[in-house]
TrEMBL record:
Protein's cellular compartments: Cytoplasm
Taxonomic source organism: Acetoanaerobium noterae
GO MF annotations in UniProt: ATP binding; single-stranded DNA binding
Domain of life of the native organism: Bacteria
Short name of any one Pfam family annotated for the protein: SMC_N
Protein name: DNA replication and repair protein RecF
InterPro entries to which the protein is assigned, alphabetical: DNA-binding_RecF, DNA-binding_RecF_CS, P-loop_NTPase, RecF/RecN/SMC_N, RecF_2
GO cellular component: cytoplasm
NCBIfam families reported for this sequence: recf
Residues holding ATP: G30, K31, N32, G33, Q34, G35, K36, T37
Sorted UniProt keywords: ATP-binding, Cytoplasm, DNA damage, DNA repair, DNA replication, DNA-binding, Nucleotide-binding, SOS response
Residue span(s) of domain RecF/RecN/SMC N-terminal: 3-351
Family stated for the protein in its record: Belongs to the RecF family.
């Protein structure tokens, strides 16, 4: 998969910008605050149609701009696509693929797969469950576009249920309706998450074994908030009963206390839970192993490597981890942002970002 070029108009601090990219390694250099991460954000938008930094599209619009525009020609699965994304203060986000407007955002998902490494991703192990759920949601959405719709639907029902729980007098018949709807969607979300973790675990374990020079064994487990005595293949009626069981507590606390929005991932070295123990180096290595496994999983599913974005992470890694990471991406189109030039000992196309201008060095 390749991002061949990009054109920006009124995106963040870019009034106008254009760039053509190498199919191998692209190094983006610039001082802090010049717009390196903004460019990476625009590239990432081509995959999911949304940012990895904010849930508010208007934050990506240049101040006082009426419209923001992103356009790119990409290559995936032997086909060429032109992706256009338009944001406006008073209009709904509009996406076109080969000049044809799409009806829903899920039509964009899966065309071009992108895996991003950011300093926040390196905190994946030591941060809270919310970050690990986000990791699952982003990656599953790229592989299973229907999952994105399920998450959106779940969140909508959850908000309605929580609003009902805040009422002085609660209509339990309506609560039954919400619980039934939540149970159906929850079962599907949990099945997707279990499949993802089952698939990614052996790949992440192999990556970590290599990174640690055979010294450590990494294991990943899906930790659903709603559990059963058997495998997680229970039906929606079981989940519905779980919601009913927690109803008294939910009414007391006026919020939904159980469900997939409380799920987590367990990350272990042997018997040690890395979420709570282990060195910072071990946690970073585990995070890298997980991110690399995303790349391999996409390759196994699509027989093509995704595009990889490395946003300002080299300052967080020692020399050995930097080299290991770049060597792992030798066959993949990669974008690297740094504040200064790095000698990767391989062919690199280098860009300078200065005052929101992109120039080729």
């Amino acid at each position: 998969m390749l991002i061949n070029n990009i054109t920006l108009s009124n995106f963040r601090n870019y009034s106008k910008a254009e760039a053509n990219f190498s199919e191998n390694l692209n190094l983006i250099i610039g001082k802090n605050g010049q717009g390196k991460t903004n460019l990476i954000e625009a590239i990432y938008m081509l995959s999911l149609g949304r940012s990895f930094r904010t849930n508010k599209d208007k934050e990506m619009m240049m101040f006082d701009a009426l419209n923001t525009y992103i356009s790119s020609e990409v290559t995936a699965m032997g086909r060429n696509y032109k992706i256009e994304i338009k944001l406006g203060k008073d209009i709904k986000k509009a996406v076109k693929i080969n000049s044809i407007p799409i009806e829903k955002l899920t039509d964009l998902l899966g065309i071009i797969n992108i895996v991003i490494f950011s300093p926040e991703d390196l905190k994946l192990v030591r941060e809270g469950p919310k970050e690990r759920r986000g990791f699952m949601d982003r990656e599953i959405s790229q592989l299973r576009p229907n999952y994105y719709s399920l998450i959106h639907k779940y969140q909508k029902i959850l908000v309605q249920r929580n609003n009902l729980l805040k009422n002085t007098k609660i209509d339990e018949n309506l609560l039954d309706v919400y619980d039934e709807q939540l149970a159906i969607v929850s079962q599907k979300i949990m099945a997707y998450r279990k499949e993802f973790i089952d698939n990614i675990t052996p790949i992440a374990s192999a990556n970590h074994y290599r990174i640690s020079s055979g010294k450590e064994k990494l294991n990943i487990k899906y930790l659903p908030n709603i559990t059963a005595s058997s495998e997680i293949d229970f039906d929606s009626s079981y989940i519905f009963n779980k919601f009913k069981t927690s109803r008294a507590e939910d009414m007391r606390r006026r919020t939904t206390t159980s469900g997939p929005h409380k799920d987590d991932i367990g990350i272990y070295l042997g018997d040690m839970d890395l979420r709570n123990f282990g060195s910072q180096g071990q946690k970073r290595s585990a995070a890298i192993s997980l991110k690399l496994s995303e790349i391999q999983l996409i390759f196994e599913e699509k027989n093509e490597y995704p595009v990889v974005l490395l946003d300002d992470i080299f300052s967080e890694l020692d020399i050995s981890r930097q080299k290991m990471l770049i060597d792992s991406l030798s066959e993949i189109q990669t974008f690297v942002t740094t504040t200064e030039a790095i000698d990767f000992n391989k062919e690199v196309k280098t860009y300078l970002i200065e005052n929101a201008k992109v120039s080729l060095l």
